[in-house]
Design a protein that fits this description.
With 194 residues, the chain is mainly alpha-helical. The protein contains 9 helices and no strands. The protein is elongated, with a radius of gyration of 17 Å. The two termini are 26 Å apart. Residues 1-7 have low confidence and may be disordered.
Length: 194
């Protein structure tokens, strides 16, 4: 019986899944901030060059948020989330293997595809439930997402102190893999529910 539920791709996800998807999006924005000086030293570039990794990421993230909704309306929430998580994993691996600051910035901008998590976690809620209940569920998703920017830099700073800047991106890679598995197992297509 449980296998049948696992294979049913129309089952709405649990709220925890949506919180984790949105949380990964928020964590990606700021976990590495304490590592910027060390990254500048590692790549042999001025600190200002590494600061561009924040601005360029936010710019691309903002642009993607405009188009992710319509794309998911056409191709489905599940497909877009799974695709964006796979692209995010490749981009994160690229940040770890980048030989120069330029390549790092390219892969860092590509990581912005995880903005799909912020956009679609809320869209999935609206697909699943009526407006009155949706407000409550979106509140939980937003609350979970709001906690991450407070603890992300702390986690990033500790990882940087003990293991260096790459540990932040290694953690994002691990969390991305776990989130991909969770979305695959728990998030059915919701765009057709209402």
């Amino acid at each position: 019986m449980q296998d049948a539920v696992f294979l049913d791709r129309t089952t709405p996800p649990k709220i925890v899944t949506l919180i984790l998807i949105a949380g990964l999006s928020a964590l990606t924005m700021n976990i590495f901030l304490p590592s910027l000086p060390g990254m500048a030293t590692y790549f042999g570039v001025p600190y200002g060059v590494m600061q561009q990794s924040v601005a360029l990421y936010l710019l691309l993230s903002a642009l993607l948020q405009i188009v992710i909704g319509p794309i998911s309306d056409r191709y489905g929430r599940r497909a877009v989330l799974l695709g964006s998580l796979v692209l995010f994993l490749f981009a994160t691996l690229g940040t770890l293997l980048a030989p120069t600051a330029t390549w790092f910035l390219i892969f860092r901008m590509a990581q912005a595809v995880i903005a799909a998590g912020m956009v679609l976690s809320r869209a999935v809620v609206r697909d699943m439930v009526a407006d009155a209940q949706a407000a409550s569920m979106i509140g939980y998703v937003t609350m979970g997402m709001s906690l991450v920017p407070m603890i992300g830099p702390v986690i990033g700073g500790v990882l940087d102190d003990f293991y260096g800047w790459k540990a932040n991106f290694a953690l994002l890679l691990i969390l991305g893999l776990a989130t991909l598995a969770l979305v695959w197992a728990d998030l059915g297509e919701t765009a057709t529910l209402r």
